[in-house]
Amino acid sequence: MLPQVVIIGRPNVGKSTLFNRLVGKKLALVDDQPGVTRDRRFGDVELLGLKFQIVDTAGWEDEDAHSLPGRMRQQTEAALVGAAAALFVIDSRTGLTPLDEEIARYLQRSSVPITVVANKAEGKAGDAGIYEAFSLGFGDPVAMSAEHGEGVADLFEALLPTLEPLQPEKPEFEPFEDDEEKPLGPLQLAIVGRPNAGKSTLINQFLQEDRLLTGPEAGITRDSIAIDWTWHDPKSGEDRAVKLIDTAGMRKRAKVTDKLEKLAVADARHAVDYAEVVVLLLDATKGLEVQDLKIASHAIEEGRALIIAINKWDVAEDPSGLFNGIRAALDEGLAQARGVPLVAVSARTGKGLDNLLNAAFETREIWNKRVPTAALNRWFDDALAANPPPAPGGKRIKLRYITQTGARPPRFVVFGTRLDHLPESYRRYLVNGLRRDLGFGSVPVRLMMRTPKNPFAKN
């Protein structure tokens, strides 16, 4: 395990900018308005050879514990537990504020080593704030410009005495890797849906802790947050690795006018693109809406394996009728993924969560499936014999053979002649046959047509 370093400070001092600078990627959403970050975000850092995990937190605010800012502060306080060090970020251009001094008093009661980072110190505009930072009682402040990358070496020197003894040991030798196919890694499971469907509550129920910020307010989640977790499968008795990805709620595009919400939705779509299995969470009290079908279609278009989960099942009216109605609507509205797994869950009580995870692992296995070329072409010959391709204009379309070119999602190429004249209906016939006869079910299947070049054709 890498030692953890937590970034703490009041809103809008540049914590997320510093986080992005240290991880070397724009993972955290950044905007001029305060309070963008709400949940803790983790990233691995290698700073001049020093390895650690950095934790971005919400801006510290002095609010009632039951309010949204108060609950965000509780998440920040929880991040300090078990941390190896903390970076207390101030705005050197603004100088110390009463809230900075309140945070300092709280941190002085902590046993975690504190380094003050005087951010936005480019030029001389921040000199006064840097000198003020000495009064906080945490030693020499580190003058930085997270936006421009200035002061990184000074930060390294400040963290080195604390983190160097905690560095992971290097292996004496690298393990030999043979040519056998590597086993699958952690299941990349993204939870998506409309605002207030219960996505963060579902992940908290998986983890059995209040890891993500939740509440009655819609649209609490902004950043897509990835959390490594181990699920104990009661069916097999095995421990299985999962990377849970929480995402911002996706509203109709016409309703998304705020710049920050646009960034959050774009981040959620990005998370879908890199997931293996996408769980679309529906609200049982609202049923299936057009926006849900649009979210599902996006996941399918990106080639992700899809599962539909109906949340708030514990308060659903007429559960049987609701389930059957959603099943019928999905089969009609998602013809390209007919039979997509549908699971009833309750994020509040934990009902159906093991069924959901079993379905996710089974769906990923299908999504990764490969069919031997010989078996694939036996199926192909039978499909052509049962329903030969048409002959438009009296000229035959010859389909010679098929091969699988990849998985994740399954991809196939059919070779033949005059394939540009093959009707779309026949292509759908082949795709449906692949799903039905070769066990690909509802996962996205890509089928391409390729005609070999004629070496004697005139240029």
UniProtKB/TrEMBL annotation:
Domain EngA-type G: 3-167, 187-368
InterPro entries, alphabetized: G_ENGA, GTP-bd, GTPase_Der, KH_dom-like, KH_dom-like_a/b, P-loop_NTPase, Small_GTP-bd
PROSITE patterns: G_ENGA
Gene Ontology molecular-function annotations: GTP binding
Keywords from the UniProt entry: GTP-binding, Nucleotide-binding, Repeat, Ribosome biogenesis
CDD domains documented for this protein: EngA1, EngA2
Residues engaged in binding GTP 2: 193-200, 246-250, 311-314
Residues reported to bind GTP 1: 9-16, 56-60, 119-122
GO biological process terms, semicolon-separated: ribosome biogenesis
Function according to Swiss-Prot or TrEMBL: GTPase that plays an essential role in the late steps of ribosome biogenesis.
Assembly: Associates with the 50S ribosomal subunit.
HAMAP family for the chain: GTPase_Der
Family: Belongs to the TRAFAC class TrmE-Era-EngA-EngB-Septin-like GTPase superfamily. EngA (Der) GTPase family.
NCBIfam families named in the record: GTPase_EngA, small_GTP
Protein name listed in UniProt: GTPase Der
Species of the source: Croceicoccus pelagius
Name of the gene this protein is made from: der
